[in-house]
Specification:
It is a single chain. With 490 residues, this protein is of the alpha/beta class. The chain folds into two domains: 384 residues, TIM Barrel (Alpha-Beta Barrel); 99 residues, Golgi alpha-mannosidase II (Immunoglobulin-like), CATH 2.60.40.1180. 32% of the residues lie in helices and 21% in strands. It has 18 helices and 23 strands. Strands 1-2-5-11-12-13-14-15 form an eight-stranded parallel β-barrel. Strands 16-17-18-23-20-21 form a six-stranded antiparallel sheet. Helix 7 runs parallel beside helix 9. The longest helix has 14 residues. It is globular and about 80 Å long.
């Protein structure tokens, strides 16, 4: 897989239902037409994350169809929703067996082979913190889970009565309510760790990588703080992930581990062996902070940058058009996907969806042709080898004059590979921005004239190199949220 790989997240059940409608027949993973896979390859994706392929929980579906928050939200965003389109949470996993509605394991392996033949990796989900509240393991291996014989009134909602009369804890993030359709695994039980490791070993034989859900909840210090009232002895001497990743990679060094992680623990999780970790800080700064704050984050240590998973959309966030607004969402995408690190896109993002539906709901997609065209252009541009094998650096720019501070709204960086350069300018503001760019940090050249091609518009211009060396540099003006990506050879 390339450096700075492009990863596409697809909600499997939504995608297969869409294809079934288009082709007027039931489509499983084995039946996905080859031209759809070829399109994923042609758009420049290195990996496809099929979200939600595992056997689904009947109890989770029952809970979702009667959950007031889900029903009230759907009534607000889609008043004509069909309750039959509400299903289980894709992260209340009943068992790590491929959903039979998707064709089962045979169909998945066929799908994987066709993807791999195109040079595209297959990534699946792993949720190591919890399983569904009706998973068969509650009957066969109840010791894997946090449980009690009895509960007090203050624990109602935190626990549920299991099949053997014991009470089992729901999975939870300590900052939120419990997930009422889940059962919390006891990660301090050696048997539970062995169980999870064996699942990972199995999954590593049927896919090329895993997106691991809520990884920080599995860290010893976080787990101990969250569940200290219900744990017996002290915490394990070792963390779960370093040993698990080491064992998997000893058999397959190219297997990919992606971590969903928050609370500023991404560097710690990277040190555990994960190839890439969610960069929620970048997302938050693109959404809420200034261009200077964004560039400040991009000054972080080089290895951290390389191992960060950049995104402006995933199934937990509002669609970019809604979160950022139409113009700013394009600028945010250009900023997010033209820097170092893995680059995560969602199919709904590319379609230009405006509504984030609950993960339990199966919508019919909306498609915005202008947004699709923008992403097709951006993906074509960043598919160039320079954005994957080149050296990336922030590019200092100068003000036009002392009274004009609009240059501070501009994000600027340079990619350089051999004689090829890509110079990225993004006006990350709703006002016109003016600045000067000089030849500082440009590769040295003997050329007197340089041909610049602006990749978004396709326009070209030849400029003398001397233009960048006089009066503080060459003047540039950008309209609000304008993106320019210049390509040139030295």
């Amino acid at each position: 897989m390339r450096k700075n790989p492009h990863i596409l997240e697809i909600n499997t059940q939504v995608w297969l239902k869409k294809l079934s409608r288009e082709l007027n027949k039931t489509i499983t993973l084995a039946d996905v037409p080859q031209n759809y896979l070829q399109e994923i390859k042609d758009l420049g994706f290195d990996a496809l994350w099929l979200m939600g392929v595992w056997q689904q929980s009947p109890k989770s579906a029952e809970i979702a169809r009667n959950h007031p928050d889900i029903l009230n939200y759907l009534a607000k965003v889609k008043p004509d929703f069909d309750p039959k389109d509400i299903g289980p949470s894709l992260y209340a996993i009943y068992d790590y067996k491929v959903n039979p509605d998707f064709g089962g394991e045979v169909a998945l392996l066929s799908f994987k082979k066709r993807l791999n033949d195109l040079g595209v990796k297959l990534i699946l989900d792993f949720a190591g913190n919890h399983m569904s509240c009706d998973t068969p393991y509650l009957k066969t291996n109840s010791e894997y889970f946090i449980s009690k014989k009895n509960i007090g009134p203050e624990e109602e909602g935190l626990f549920f009565k299991g099949p053997d009369g014991k009470y089992f804890a729901h999975g939870r993030d300590p900052h939120f309510y419990s997930w009422s359709d889940t059962a919390q695994l006891n990660l301090f039980n050696p048997k539970t760790r062995e169980f999870l490791l064996n699942i990972l070993k199995y999954l590593s034989t049927i896919c090329d990588g895993l997106r691991c859900d809520m990884v920080m909840l599995m860290l010893n210090k976080v787990f101990a703080e969250t569940w200290k009232m219900y744990l017996g002895n002290g915490s394990p001497q070792e963390e779960f992930w370093p040993k698990a990743i080491k064992e998997i990679k000893e058999k397959n060094n190219y297997f990919i581990f992606l971590a969903e992680v928050y609370w500023g623990l991404d560097w710690e999780v990277q040190e555990s062996g994960f190839d890439f970790t969610y960069d929620k800080t970048l997302y938050d700064r693109l959404l809420l902070s200034t261009p200077q704050d964004i560039q400040g984050h991009l000054n972080a240590e080089h290895l951290y940058q390389k191992r960060s998973l950049r995104f402006i959309a995933n199934h937990d966030e509002e669609p970019p058009i809604k979160a950022f607004g139409v113009e700013r969402s394009s600028a945010a995408a250009a900023a997010c996907y033209t820097i170092e690190g893995a680059r995560l896109f969602t199919l709904n993002q590319i379609y230009g969806a405006r509504v984030r539906y609950p993960i339990q709901y199966i919508p019919k997609e909306e498609v915005n042709s202008k947004v699709v065209a923008f992403y097709e252009t951006l993906l074509r541009v960043i598919n160039h080898p320079c954005f994957h094998g080149g050296q990336w650096s922030l590019k200092p720019i100068n003000s036009i004059n002392m009274d004009d501070n609009s240059y501070k709204n501009v994000l600027a960086w340079l990619w350089w590979q051999s004689t090829c350069c890509k110079l990225v300018f993004i006006n990350y503001s709703g006002n016109q921005s003016n600045f000067r760019i000089n030849a500082d940090k440009f590769p040295k050249t003997n050329k007197e004239q340089i041909k610049f091609t602006e990749e978004i518009s396709g326009s070209t211009k030849e400029l003398p190199i001397s233009a960048f060396k006089q009066d503080g540099g060459f003047p540039v003006t950008l309209k609000p949220f304008e993106i320019r990506i210049y390509s040139f050879d030295f």
